[in-house]
Design brief:
Shape: elongated
Largest sheet: none
Order of helices and strands: HHHHHH
Mean pLDDT: 83
Distance between the termini: 44 Å
Helix content: 55-70%
Radius of gyration: 19 Å
Number of domains: 2
């Protein structure tokens, strides 16, 4: 069984008037405030774009093109670490949360190190 191409799977709707360049500009402006999942919801609700795959790429691919994807990875893990830190303050004996905190903290440090090296190059 042959795999369907992306264009056959998600054909461009007749009523969609946005070009791919306009979509990139909208995603770039929304990337300043929102994460990829939220951008998808805004595109669907406010701009009438059912999926960005009609142009053959996911939102994360567009974010990589404009170099916004790495910022959200670090930001998400920072939020997770802060929430776990607050939880551990209130629940001192929660060993599972302590372990998750350690894992999230080490992942945060690794990502920061990775992105700092990447920016130097």
């Amino acid at each position: 069984m042959a795999k369907k191409s992306l264009d056959q799977k998600h054909p461009k709707p007749v009523w969609l008037k946005l070009s791919e360049e306009e979509l990139k500009k909208i995603i770039a402006t929304l990337a300043e405030k929102y994460q990829a999942a939220q951008i998808g919801l805004i595109l669907r609700d406010q701009y009438g774009v059912p999926t960005t795959k009609v142009y053959g790429k996911k939102i994360s691919a567009y974010l990589k093109e404009i170099n916004k994807n790495e910022f959200f990875e670090v930001q998400n893990i920072e939020v997770k670490v802060e929430k776990l830190k607050e939880h551990i303050k209130n629940n001192v004996t929660d060993k599972k949360a302590k372990h998750k905190f350690q894992k999230a903290n080490s992942k945060l440090n690794a990502l920061r190190k990775y992105f700092s090296k990447r920016k130097k190059n």
